[in-house]
What does this fold into?
Amino acid sequence: MQVLLLATGENEHLAPLTTKRPSPMVAVVDRPVMAIAIENLVRAGIKRVLVSLYNQGSSVVSYFGDGRRWGIKIEYLPQNQLWGSAGILKWIARRLQESVLVLPADAIIDLDASMAMKAHHAGGSGMTLVLHQPQHKHEERLVNLDAHNKICAIGEETSTDTTLANFTGAFIFDPGMLEYIPANTEYNVYEDLLPQLLSSGVEVTGYMMPGYWNALSTFNDYQSAQVTYLRNARAQSDNSDEQASDIKLLRYTLMNQARQIAPGVWVGANSYIHPDARIASPIYIGSNCSIGGNVELGPEAVIGSGVIIDSGATVQYSTILEHTYVGQFVNVDSRIVEQTMIIDPATSSTTNTVDPFLLSETTRTETTRQAWLSVLVAAFLLFLSLPLTIPISLLLFVAARGQVFSRTPHIHSRRIGQPPSATHTNPESFDLLRFSTQRRDGSLSRLGSWLCKREIDRIPTLWNVVRGDIGLVGVKPLTLEEAANLTDDWQLRRYTCPAGFTGLWYTQADADSNLETILITDAYYAATRSWLEDLRILIRTPMVWLRRTRSSQASDHQLSSSKEQVDEVHIA
It folds into this structure.
């Protein structure tokens, strides 16, 4: 069985939340909704998945990477234009070797993939639609299912012998059905392919899934999804049968690596809760949050990562999205809040707050302990490098007539250990220190070339760590010219964490990687950053440096050998 996730992000039902991120990246319990689909596929034993991209696809790539964090291999299929849920299959026809399960990445479908595939094979048709019982008075994609689980009509129920069902957007498709899809055409399953198949007399099977389904078509659906996860997670953790009558129990409820500190209360890493805060379950509090004194939280509240809730505030039956500041004595009841924006789920009305003392944006900052630890480690490394750096400095002083160091303006949001800027889109500049490797005409000197190939010219950058300009681990410091290319919100998110002497940009990207690769790597780091991951990066850095150095030396040797061969040919 092959699997294709439709992460094209053209669904605008949850705008304005989807203006900064594609719909698969909208957070449900502090993680992208697409992560729920990935987790369910991994539990079903799926080892490889195709992901189609279109709108803001880079933010999906930067968060999920190659999928190794989930133990799955992700292959991305970027589209230059929309092909639709059926047209994409025609576009990737050469990749289809067997039945393919197609899932929308911006909906919650608690589907048992193996059961759905068994129903598909038992049905005997080339396509099976995954269906669900109608949930609302007004449904958009209704079909009629006969007694043999065949779809006989589209729309409202036409006969007492048929069952009305809702198409979830998920379906199973055999490559033999590709002949019914026109090439190079935007073609959708419900609107285009299904009517064509029914009119041609081609059988289409329907599989009525028993699990939870939420299309996230409205803000009411979105808030309902948060509540569903909270209630079911509490019921599963208590091994109880507590369950609202309108909510179907989920098979799995992963609370984004948060730990349960009390029944129905989950808290992420590095979060501070004042002893005077009053918390009612079920509730989720993400990582790096700060909850002030006399704060009342819950029930049925989701607090995203990096949220600050000031003293005296109240949050209940609401979702506070990541990096939001809730001011003193602010009351949030039955709302969705993202930084300065307030959304009423019942009416989908949106209000923007201009007073930063009520609602505003927060960014991550380093703790004093982390800042001092980086300084001490950098100072220790500088001390250890003195037997190497002193002779190099003397050689450069003589060869470059006193120009030992170079200072190049670079961009980042703040100094380590200081409060963050008011917004992550307001970065500041600092001078990055390195050994001087160029002559006055801009060419590399012989000593400079030797230093660059071994990356020894970067040793003085540790002084930037001591000064607090950058950290030991972080995103890559960018030059002014490179920073000018950052326009998308997912790119600017890199400013929510410090620049670093090393980072994923150093340990995972190649030395000659282009700016786009670096930005994607940094965005992934910013989305998944933790002190444990920083420690892993630090441990890997010496081995990566050794590998880079050997690779550079091997390239030089190969180039030298090629030059000698050319010279021999000329002599001959």
